[in-house]
């Protein structure tokens, strides 16, 4: 084979190889392993979420139940007793809602007449939200709020009995209220189960008209309460940061003593390690116009639940301010509300345009690991009667009783000076004055009143 023929064959082979390699390169499809996108957002929760259909029943609870007899009023704030009553009422078929205008005398008969049950909530509750708890005919539930549920236990020989939903503003002077009907047999069965127990076990209450528009009920005699101490378990601040911030990668941290501040383009979170509280702000969500109360409650309950923030089961709905789009949930211990000047006992939320714009809360839970609450009991203490508390307020300078909006027994929460992991709970009288809850120093004032007798 001569040289020229060899070159021709070699060139042909090289061209064929080139064509093959080019074709292979064009048609080659490599096998890549699937790699998770590390930048994709991961939904972080602080604790376990609650089932959505249980949110309202676990957070919106009455905190006082009264039974009006002909000559006296009996009542309780025992949550277990109230839960039993509400569970029974929750089986009723409540129907035929209507709006009625009551004059002052009719309103008094409805709310304070003989053989009536009065169930009192901390603040107004939207009927549409509470329809998830009571067996209400959703097609007829009005857009209205109430803070008292009145049940007429008198059997008037009819097939049904009346229940009344009274808003906070309804008291003396007449008001427009909503009424509905309940099967009389259900009411009679309820009365037979509870009335004897109510009469024998409940405490007697006194009625006091704070103003022409507000009547409250206070224990008639001195009552004994228990002081408690509980350990605390801290939630993870890192979990709150990852759950709340929109952009978790561009967060800057600055520290000043026991206060840490986390800042991103969209959000700001301040953590106070002295009191174990945090405050989260989403400025672009701020809204001026008021939202309906039903939306405020639904949105705030869901917002906390979305990141598993109901870590302590002892928080309950406590107040709502539609003008400020603000809802507050308060810690309860032994059926009584807890108060703390540093915000350690409440979850406060302000709703903005499409979500919560301000969110403040503690980031600890109380350790109720002991099945016996008495194991955490420290001491017993008798608090003054309702009439004594009224006398103390009347005797206090710079207090206008017309500006007192409510009076309750609650717990004062303080950090234990000997062990920062412990919190002390001291029973005390509190009064709501111009929107703020203030502790009444009953020991000093009772000594003064006794000295004047």
- Binned strand content: 35-45%
Structural class call reads alpha+beta
Largest sheet: 15 strands, mixed
Q: Summarize the amount of helix as a percent range.
A: 25-40%
Tell me the name of the CATH homologous superfamily of the largest domain.
YycH protein, domain 2
User: Can you tell me the CATH topology of the largest domain?
Assistant: TATA-Binding Protein
Q: Overall 3D geometry?
A: globular
The domain count comes to: 2
Report the span from N to C terminus: 139 Å
Low-confidence stretches: 28-42, 448-453
Characterization of the model:
- This protein has helices at 3-27, 55-59, 79-89, 104-112, 127-130, 184-201, 237-244, 293-306, 386-395, 442-452, and strands spanning 64-68, 73-76, 95-102, 116-126, 145-152, 160-166, 175-183, 203-211, 214-219, 223-234, 252-256, 259-263, 268-272, 277-281, 315-321, 326-333, 336-339, 346-351, 356-362, 364-366, 377-383, 404-415, 422-433, 436-440.
- The chain has 453 residues and is of the alpha+beta class.
- The chain folds into two domains: 52-219, no CATH class; 222-453, YycH protein, domain 2 (TATA-Binding Protein, 2-Layer Sandwich), CATH 3.30.310.
- Helix 9 (386-395) packs across helix 10 (442-452).
- The termini are far apart.
- 28% of the residues are buried.
- Residues 28-42 and 448-453 have low confidence and may be disordered.
């Amino acid at each position: 084979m001569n040289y020229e023929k060899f070159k021709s064959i070699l060139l042909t082979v090289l061209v064929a190889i080139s064509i093959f390699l080019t074709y292979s390169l064009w048609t080659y499809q490599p096998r890549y392993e699937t790699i998770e996108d590390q930048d994709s957002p991961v939904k972080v929760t602080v604790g376990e979420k609650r089932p959505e259909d249980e949110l309202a029943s676990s957070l919106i609870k009455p905190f006082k139940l009264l039974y009006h007899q002909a000559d006296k009023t009996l009542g309780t704030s025992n949550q277990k007793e109230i839960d039993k009553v509400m569970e029974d009422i929750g089986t009723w078929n409540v129907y035929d809602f209507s709006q009625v205008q009551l004059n002052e005398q009719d309103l008094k008969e409805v709310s304070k007449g003989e053989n009536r049950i009065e169930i009192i909530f901390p603040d107004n509750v939207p009927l549409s939200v509470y329809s998830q708890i009571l067996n209400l005919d959703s097609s007829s539930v009005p857009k209205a709020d109430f803070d008292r549920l009145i049940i007429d236990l008198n059997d008037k020989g009819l097939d049904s009995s009346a229940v009344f939903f009274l808003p906070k503003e309804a008291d003396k002077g007449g008001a427009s209220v909503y009424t509905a009907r309940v099967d009389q047999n259900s009411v009679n069965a309820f009365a037979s189960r509870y009335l004897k127990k109510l009469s024998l076990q409940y405490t007697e209450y006194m009625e006091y008209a704070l103003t022409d528009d507000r009547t409250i009920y206070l224990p008639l005699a001195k009552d004994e309460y228990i002081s408690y101490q509980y350990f605390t378990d801290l939630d993870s601040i890192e979990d709150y940061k990852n759950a709340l911030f929109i952009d978790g990668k561009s967060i800057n941290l600055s520290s000043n003593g026991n206060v840490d501040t986390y800042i991103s383009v969209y959000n700001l979170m301040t953590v106070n390690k002295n009191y174990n509280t945090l405050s989260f702000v989403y400025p672009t969500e701020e809204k001026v116009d008021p939202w309906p109360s039903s939306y405020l409650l639904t949105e705030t309950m869901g917002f906390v639940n979305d990141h598993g923030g109901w870590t302590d089961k002892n928080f309950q709905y406590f107040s709502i301010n539609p003008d400020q789009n603000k809802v507050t949930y308060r810690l309860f211990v032994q059926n009584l509300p807890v108060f703390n000047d540093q915000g350690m006992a409440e979850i406060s939320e302000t709703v903005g345009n499409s979500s919560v714009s301000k969110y403040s809360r503690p980031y600890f839970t109380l350790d109720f690991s002991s099945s016996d609450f008495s194991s955490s009991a420290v001491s017993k203490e008798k608090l003054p009667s309702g009439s004594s508390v009224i006398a103390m307020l009347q005797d206090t300078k710079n207090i206008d009783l017309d500006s007192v909006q409510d009076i309750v027994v609650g717990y004062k929460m303080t950090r234990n000076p000997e062990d920062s992991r412990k919190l002390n709970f001291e029973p005390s009288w509190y009064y709501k004055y111009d929107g703020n809850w203030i502790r009444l120093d009953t020991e000093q004032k009772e000594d003064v009143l006794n000295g004047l007798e």
